[in-house]
Amino acid sequence: MTQRRNQTVKLILTLSCPDRPGIVHAVSGFLFAEEANIVEASQLNDASTGLFFMRVKFECPSDTRPRDVEERFASVSNDFAMQAKFSIADRPMPTVIMVSQIGHCLNDLLFRHRSGLLPIDIRAIVSNHRDFYQLAASYDLPFHYIPVTSANKPEAEQKLLDIFQAEGAELLVLARYMQVLSNGLCQRLSGQVINIHHSFLPSFKGARPYQQAFDRGVKLIGATAHYVTADLDEGPIIEQGVERVDHAMDPATLTAIGRDTENVVLARAVKWHAEHRILLNGYKTVVFQ
Ligand SMILES: Nc1nc2c(c(=O)[nH]1)N[C@@H](CN(C=O)c1ccc(C(=O)N[C@@H](CCC(=O)O)C(=O)O)cc1)CN2
């Protein structure tokens, strides 16, 4: 026993199910039987939906494999009608980043990743423009140029999917990628695509939110990271940030102020997703920070 105890692996269990007594008891009892030690636990009882959400990070003997634990957990999962998933903690998530012609979010993610601040493994950069070819090269990352027109969108999206699969990616980040993904692609990658929208949603949807903000004369601007769905700028919100602005600021100034907020909001959303801290709750999210 002691020998096995020394080498451990950390796993994460995320689950949701109809709320009722006994869920935490069943989960913690199962983990105790697995000789596991809980090192972090969070839960939400959502009265509005009657659903229960939980994230547990635990240490267990090093030869434990997530799928084996998942199999052994099946009886508990079935008893409580859970949607449950086991993941390896602290494993960098294979990620593909998409960008168009505005690069501050891409640049920020690359530097945070290089600095060990993001638990992801960037596998490739994909763009419908060539602008950031050299930036990708400076980080020794593959760069794929896939031009998109209304005529070639299906082929272009198939090329993206081929790269995503070939790289073994699990997350697609739209870091100011300015093409609308098709319904089919959104369904194929549901829950795996995070976009940064440069406004405080639900205000100012679309391609030019800073101009809209200027025209409306708002005193706060912001950014929103959300999961991508077929409905433009409507996906479940993960994180938001705001900055105060005033009457003297033109659209260019608002755009400049917004950049930093976009960077911070997107980086937080990517980090939390890669740490399995986000659970979908209908068209909303539960984020166990
Ligand atoms: N299916 C989805 N695809 C994308 C989403 C999304 O929410 N669902 N978000 C966008 C990013 N985005 C805002 O954050 C956005 C991008 C593009 C447009 C837009 O109107 N694009 C025009 C073309 C603009 C251009 O070429 O510069 C268009 O597609 O006709 C609006 C919002 C990423 N994809």
From TrEMBL:
Descriptive protein name: Formyltetrahydrofolate deformylase
Record GO terms (molecular function): formyltetrahydrofolate deformylase activity
Keyword annotations of the record: Hydrolase, One-carbon metabolism, Purine biosynthesis
Family membership noted in the UniProt record: Belongs to the PurU family.
Catalytic center residues: 233
EC number, UniProt record: 3.5.1.10
Known function: Catalyzes the hydrolysis of 10-formyltetrahydrofolate (formyl-FH4) to formate and tetrahydrofolate (FH4).
Gene3D superfamilies: 3.30.70.260, Formyl transferase, N-terminal domain
Stored Pfam families: Formyl_trans_N
Domain ACT positions: 12-91
Pathway(s) annotated for this protein in UniProt: Purine metabolism; IMP biosynthesis via de novo pathway; formate from 10-formyl-5,6,7,8-tetrahydrofolate: step 1/1
Gene symbol of the encoding locus: purU
Record field: catalytic activity: (6R)-10-formyltetrahydrofolate + H2O = (6S)-5,6,7,8-tetrahydrofolate + formate + H(+)
